[in-house]
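User: Hey, my collaborator sent me this sequence without any context and asked if I could get a structure. I don't really work with proteins. Can you help?
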Amino acid sequence: MIKEYCGVFGIYGIKDEPVAKNVYYGLFALQHRGQESAGIATSDGNVISQFKDLGLVNQVFNERSLRNLKGRIAIGHVRYSTTGSSTIENAQPIVIDTKYGAIALAHNGNLVNSGDLRHELKSRGLSFSGTSDSEIMAAMIATSGKENFEEALVDTLKLCQGAYSLVIMKNDRIIAVRDPHGLRPLCIGKTESSYVVSSETCALDILGANFVRDVSNGEIVIIDSSGLRSSTWDISAKEALCVFEFIYFARPDSVLKGRSVYDARFNLGKFLAKEHPVEADVVIPVPESGVPAAIGFAAESKIPFGEGLIKNRYVGRTFIQPSQEIRDMGVKLKLNPIRDAVRGKKIVIVDDSIVRGTTSRQIVKLLHEAGAREVHMRVSSPPNLNPCYYGIDTATRAELIAANLSIEGIRKYLDVDSLGYLSVDSLKKAVDLPKDSMCMACLDGKYPVKVPERLENLKLLFRET
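Assistant: No problem. I've predicted the 3D structure and written it out in structure-token form, which is a compact way to encode the shape of the chain:
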């Protein structure tokens, strides 16, 4: 499985009502984007308060902690560690005092030049409590020589290379920012009593907020007592939204760039069935992310769709576990075959992606042990050939199975009767967005933001911590 990154959320209340609980609901809807820590920071107009801890949203917060977070302005964050380990010091939002006043910062993404920026700041005498690049961005704003906060923010953004969707809070406003390529999603919504900023539209829905628009690449949006205003700080780069938002990351009930994620995944399955037909008795998904593509595959192939694996929803995503032994056991804890549904049958199993291949191999083994007569694997994305440096830990090149084995070699490793990946051309058709508006570097090696040679060599050889 691919490792996830983070989710950000913010509310600016138009009425003088506490909003911490609404941020809690928003983070709950974004829980799929990060399961290691959660945090909320609020402002009552004078003081910024915060509460954060390791764990899921409903484990971190309770009625008492939410009641103590006072104010009508708030931001929140759910985290999966990409740069920086999973410790309380790296939980967000990052709250810091500056000459511009206190700020709270929540970040989704990853900076490819964070090492150089940290070294520069340390050479100037700064110290850090954690190891995340989000803390680096906050420190850069705090130490900027610019006259006001907005100038300091732009000054900082010009030095940051990589992916970042930011939600920043000052005492009296919320600021939403996307990097020049818009690698990570960010949108704006509105209720009768508030403006809402979120990584995905599914979190707007939970509050009954109407979608207003996406934050554009290279845009800064400021929400304060005057309403909403924006400026474009960088128009030099073309948009490159991560294509895996459509394949795997975003919730299927979200809308990205006006495109239904569910519809895109359904079409991925349809194109997959056209490219790799097979005779079988039933099409089953790897739950939950493989469901829409499996439904599309079944619809196109006329093979019945069915459930063959039951997911234990109380077990976290398998990639969060650090060791291979625990990851393998995580598959058994997370998925269990329905023996009567698979015994003696030719099965097409549809998954969204194969990264290392270990999880897929375990799933195939479970199906064989349950009595499946044949197992045909279909993958609703092209082979994952290259590491991601923008906030998704897709392993090193040495760990990417498609970068080291042929399709036939992968088929033998997985122990399936046949294996078919979706083509890049069909992926583009299924998503139905301009091909030059998406980042597909993990598939085609075309990185929109230049990766430092030092970092590239490191990821070729070693697994990042």
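In plain terms: Residues 6-237 form a domain with the Glutamine Phosphoribosylpyrophosphate, subunit 1, domain 1 fold (CATH 3.60.20.10). You can pass these tokens on to your collaborator as they are.
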